[in-house]
Amino acid sequence: ITMAELPDAAGKSARAFVCQTLNPWGFPAKDRSGRLDMIEAPHLGRLMEKVHGPVQPAPLRLTYTPLALPAPSAAAAAPDGAPSHGN
Question: What's the half-sphere exposure (Cβ side, CA atoms, 13 Å) at 4?
């Protein structure tokens, strides 16, 4: 976690904790609890409460887009009479 001065929406600098590794500022950070947002308020007590609090269910905190795999082509299929893997 890095305490840093970051610009707010109005461009004014404000302190904040940067808590995630992949952040746009390149600050060193790592949240092993999975409970912290990328930016947290600069209050150590609230940060510790959040770390020790309940974790959100995986479907709410983990988002990804599954890959759509293409159907195998006829050329990739085993020719007639040729052994196939798994048989």
Answer: 19
